[in-house]
Amino acid sequence: MLLIVAGAGLLLLVADSAIITPLTKSWNARSKRIADLRTSIDAERQLIGRADQINGQWDQFRTNTLPTDVSQAENDMLKAINRWARDSGVNSVQIRPQWQEKSGEDYTTYECHADYTGDIRSISRFLYELEKDSISCKLENIEIASRDDNGRQLSLGIQLSGLVLSNPDQQ
């Protein structure tokens, strides 16, 4: 009787390690994969539901990029920067533009580093004008520092990137 119980116990141990444990692990892995796929499907359904909105935003973004003509792109970006400065009342110290091209990419950026001085009101107005403008530019870096002991005169350093698509009609 003891041999039968020991044999049955050994058989159950072998069955557990050879059959039941691998099947349980496989079941859990499949359950996790199914849950991941359901999450992915839900996310894609949401994207499909917002396709018109996303395409509309892309069309607006694409039409507001800088022109592919280099001189026109430079002119448009510098006009926008000067307009923001004029409308806000900041004093321009210097503007340093340069082109940034990345090999293998469908776009180029026109980067401008600009320095301004002014009070808190004019600097905040400048940043507001920059953000509300429709031109496709990205504020990469911003630095504000006090120029006096009271903090009434501030200096503003910004780095902007204007986007130029290589072939905007095919995007």
Question: How would you describe what is shown here?
Answer:
- This protein has 171 residues and is an alpha+beta fold.
- 54% of the residues lie in helices and 26% in strands.
- A four-stranded antiparallel sheet has the order 1-2-4-3.
- A hairpin with a 5-residue loop joins β1 and β2 (107-118).
- The chain is elongated and about 100 Å long.
- The relative contact order is 0.13.
- The mean pLDDT is 89.
Structural class: alpha+beta
Number of helices: 4
Q: Can you tell me the CATH superfamily of the largest domain?
A: Ribosomal protein S6/Translation elongation factor EF1B
Unreliable residue stretches: none
Give the C-level CATH assignment of the largest domain.
Answer: Alpha Beta
Report how far the terminal alpha carbons are from each other: 80 Å
- Per the CATH scheme, the topology name of the largest domain is Alpha-Beta Plaits
The ordered H/E elements are: HHHEEHEE
- How many distinct beta strands? 4
Percent range of helical residues:
40-55%
Describe the structure using short key phrases.
single chain, 171 residues, alpha+beta, Alpha-Beta Plaits, 2 domains, four-stranded antiparallel β-sheet, 54% helix, 26% strand
Short description:
With 171 residues, this protein is an alpha+beta fold.
Give me the secondary-structure topology.
Elements: H1 2-49, H2 51-63, H3 70-88, E1 91-101, E2 107-118, H4 120-132, E3 137-146, E4 154-165
Antiparallel strand pairs: 1-2, 2-4, 3-4
